[in-house]
Amino acid sequence: MGLFAERGVAGTPTAAISKAAGVAEGTLFRYFKTKDELINELYLVLRKMFDEQLRELPAGADVRARLRFVWDRYLDIGLAHPEYVEVIRQLRVSGRLRKELVQEGVMMSELVTGTRQAVAASEFHHASPEYVILLLRAHGEATIEYVAGHPEEEAFCRELGFQLIWRGMTGK
User: Phi/psi class of residue 56: alpha, beta or left (left: φ > 0; alpha: ψ in -120 to 50)?
Assistant: First the structure.
């Protein structure tokens, strides 16, 4: 995973992956027929890890509380393991993920539902949930990057970051 975070998906040959894993390249291909298959499996493992963080999602809560919960869990993961967020980003932009993997999962489902509900009564009610989710991720990544360098401002940045997102989606 660290190789993808450092070098990017395209810049990480399977020879480097197998060397880092301590196996022969042929062994790697015994488990994964192609690099794309390996990439999709890695994405699935990371997505499940992110989804596991939502097991206590307050399902009966209002949309603002649910989105705040997702925001906080995303920041928790990103601050504890910034390489996970970077690898997910690298994998998403690689163009090599199976579309259904990206569209599935607890976090994605909650984000699609939540963003639709949040913008429904706003002037942005025609906004694509996919676009709004990309904005949320970018905002989250920026918050993680800033807090990593300014840990004393974490609480303030979590709150400010979410307030900016919420007001941007709802106008409130």
Answer: alpha
Query: How many Cα atoms sit within 13 Å of 5 on the Cβ side?
Result: 13
**pTM score of the predicted model:** 0.86
Give residue limits of the domains in the chain: 2-170
For 5-54, the pLDDT digits (tens) are 888 888 888 899 899 888 988 888 888 999 899 999 999 999 899 899 88
Superfamily of domain 2-170: Tetracycline Repressor, domain 2 (1.10.357.10)
Look up residue 42 and give its amino acid.
L
Q: What is the sign, positive or negative, of the torsion defined by CA atoms of 88, 97, 106, 126?
A: positive
